[in-house]
Amino acid sequence: MTASILDGNALSAHLRTELAERAAALAAQGVHPCLAVILVGEDPASAVYVRNKVAGCEKVGMRSIKDVYAPDVNPAVVFARIAELNADPAVHGILVQLPLPKHFDSEAVLEAIAPEKDVDGFHAQNVGALMQGNPRFIPCTPYGVMKMLEAGHVPLKGAEAVIVGRSNIVGKPMAMLLLAQSCTVTVCHSQSRDLAFHTRRADILVAAVGRAKMITGDMIKPGATVIDVGINRQLSGPNAGKLCGDVDFESAKTVAGLITPVPGGVGPMTITMLLTNTIEAAERTLI
Ligand code: GUN
């Protein structure tokens, strides 16, 4: 068997057409959806993500603001900027790219963002709302995964869903979203005993650990849906320098029923859902 591909580029292109229409409808009413992105430091991966987020805004006709600070900036400067953006009615979404340098209290930074502009969905109020099944903003990567499962017509009710990774950004919110759709959810992590025992039970397997190719074909149930959230740069071998996921695509595709590639899978969906959350924040200002 060779798995069918869940194409994040194609789904993103379709969803972004709809977003462009919503952005135009807002503009016609005098509201120009605007995302403010703050980047601290010089992490090359973060710089690429931020660039793609800003470019994504442009392509659907949204405004964006990009503030870049030196890695040794005084956190007070960033807090002051967040307060300014919170108070600016022309800004609908605010995002601080993570990770922040070590001298920052990341949690305090996320809490400083006005919850109604927290398009990442990382503010404690928004995390709580998601946990209670009443989300205001769904974190972008898990939101994108849910859209891909929907597009792939993957049955969720009663399905065994196994998530590898327990981060605040992906693993934990992913668990909440799948649980809300009546999956039976298992969350595995670095201390899990016999990881393969769990992954082989999964009808839906979400890999979000940040370790290149750690999920291999023998760890996958035949016919399973495999969602690869990892974006890793290969350090050695014939493909050194190229991107790969947390799933060993070559062996996994011979076992899985549906699989997301890297690149071109979850990655573009994350940005699409960020744009969706920002448009939604802008639309809410009209209610
Ligand atoms: N770093 C890695 N993923 C994300 C994300 O979704 N949002 C932010 N703000 N930072 C990240």
Q: What would you note in describing this structure?
A:
This protein has two domains: 32-114, Rossmann fold; 140-267, NAD(P)-binding Rossmann-like Domain (Rossmann fold, 3-Layer(aba) Sandwich). The longest helix is centred in the N-terminal third of the chain and has 21 residues, at 8-28. The protein contains ten helices and eleven strands. The radius of gyration is 19 Å and the shape is globular. Strands 1-11-8-7-5-6 form a six-stranded parallel β-sheet. It has a three-stranded parallel β-sheet with strand order 3-2-4, sandwiched between helices. Helix content is 40%, strand content 15%. Helix 1 packs parallel to helix 10 (266-284). By secondary structure, it is α/β, with parallel strands linked by helices. The chain binds guanine. Guanine (GUN) binds next to strand 4 and helix 6.
Task: Describe how the helices and strands are arranged.
Layout: E1 4-5, H1 8-28, E2 34-40, H2 44-59, E3 63-69, H3 75-87, E4 93-96, H4 106-112, H5 124-131, H6 140-151, E5 160-164, H7 171-180, E6 184-188, H8 195-199, E7 204-207, E8 225-228, E9 232-233, E10 243-244, H9 249-252, E11 258-259, H10 266-284
Parallel strand pairs: 1-11, 2-3, 2-4, 5-6, 5-7, 7-8, 8-11
Antiparallel strand pairs: 9-10
Helix pairs in contact: 1-10, 2-10, 6-7, 6-10
Guanine is lined by residues 95-98, 120, 140-141, 169.
